[in-house]
Amino acid sequence: MRGRFISIEGPDGGGKSTQAKRLVRALTDSGKQVLYTREPGGTPTGDLIRGILQHDTSGEAIHPETELLLFAASRAQLVQCVIKPALARGEWVICDRFIDSTTAYQGYGRGFPVDVVKSINEFATQALLPDLTLLLNVDVSLGAQRTHRRNADIGQVEDRFEREDDAYLTRVRDGYLALAEASPERFRLIDASRDEDSVFETVWALISELERSVA
Ligand code: TYD
After folding, report:
1. Among protein residues, the one whose CA lies closest to atom 2 of ligand 1
2. Rg (alpha carbons) of the chain, rounded to whole number
3. Among 36, 146, 161, which is best to mutate for testing ligand 1, by the most ligand atoms less than 8 A from CB?
4. What is the total count of domains within the chain?
5. 122-126, 168-172, 209-213: least confidently modelled range
6. pLDDT band at residue 2, thresholds of 50, 70 and 90?
7. Mean of the pLDDT values across residues 162-189?
8. For residue 215, how far is its CA from the centre of ligand 1 (angstroms)?
């Protein structure tokens, strides 16, 4: 049987990576084979692309069109080499960001037509969609506050994305909400302004509901 495919999405500072890791642990503890991956990255090629996107390693400014296609290229490699094979083996796949990040950040955020972004996503993924998308929703100001605190705690410099202004991040956040509203069968909206344990309780309840619905 094909495994389940869960993507975790949302604006920066919503605690996606923390929740994704907790989810992987909980599913593994319940006896499932689970694969965790993230975007951009998740393959050697994708990790090289991640470096270009995050830190301008090429030394030149990246055009928005190039940026969009680099995200799509990283995703195509991840789908072909990692996600599809894992699903075919019957594993659960937890993906930290997927297609909706590109629609939210490059479509709504940068202003590319959303239908164009969606067709590029569809081409890159061969139309593979997550069974469930958990949208960790957080206000732009709280998200930025958490991101700055985390960077300070681990002594990390801001990357290219974390230097974006509030207007851009607000478009991204509103874009996510529009996507969730348009596909309620796939999206679950989670209030991520709460503490880590409360958010995880909701995450786990939604996953249990998914399991029951496919059992
Ligand atoms: P992320 O891995 O969430 O950052 P962090 O290093 O904080 O864990 O994502 C890196 C940035 O890339 C994030 O600001 C969102 C952005 N992004 C896009 O703009 N488009 C995309 O398609 C994806 C996958 C990410």
Report:
1. 39
2. 17
3. 161
4. 1
5. 209-213
6. low
7. 94
8. 33
